[in-house]
Amino acid sequence: MATMENILLGAMQGLTEFLPVSSSGHLVLLHSIFGEGPGDMAFDAVLQLATVLAVIIYFRRDIYTLANTLLRRMSRLPVNEKEITLAYALIIGTIPAIIVGLLLESYMETIFRNPLLVAGVLVAGSILFVFAEWHYKNHRRDDRMTLAKGLKIGLFQCLALIPGMSRSGASIAGGMLLGLSRSESARFSFLLAVPVIAGSGLKKLLELATASTATDWGSLAVAGITAFLAGLFAIHFMLSFVRRHTLWPFIWYRLVLASVVVLAVYFGQ
Asked: Which residues, in sequence order, are CB contacts of 211 under 8 Å at separation 6+?
């Protein structure tokens, strides 16, 4: 794979993992363009781990505070109730993705990694965002995190197993439907991404270690570094964007992308 293609794949993963436009949907299309096929396990694993590292670096203070809060609670020391509730909500919110992922991930990826189905899911995700924006505008907001909200957002995150949906988009929309502000929904979504994406990436690396295929580590490094840098940019951009704007630009983008996918499939036949 050429260096420019590595950079493009890395940038695409880093940007689309945190923007609600579907990272898996874009990667399926790029893999198809480059003739790699959607199942390039080594690249997917490294790109996922690189984006996780971006979250950890960006939210390092939050993660340190949450980890310290959990340790203090385990030691029966006084803790900030808001912080311990957030920590527990993140733990509980991770459980649905682990269970559903272990049971259905390979099946969902095999069945749905089809360009036309990805296009359909892009449209379905746009409809979800429209409903989330309508609910956000017409209902009272409550940024208080609870364990129930954490679990429900975790259930929304499971929709990301369907390529084209967007993990961040599904969980942000879920948070908005539960009364959280856009910015708080995005922050919780990004923190919730750490165990889920890291687990998926490590699982693929372990599977790769048992395979006999050759790996171009130089190409992986280029793609991984690009994904990391693009991920940092996307996180900062998204958190800043949702403080002042709605999800409508992403809704329109997804609809345009779905149309492009359909046209590409039609004219490529």
From this structure: 41
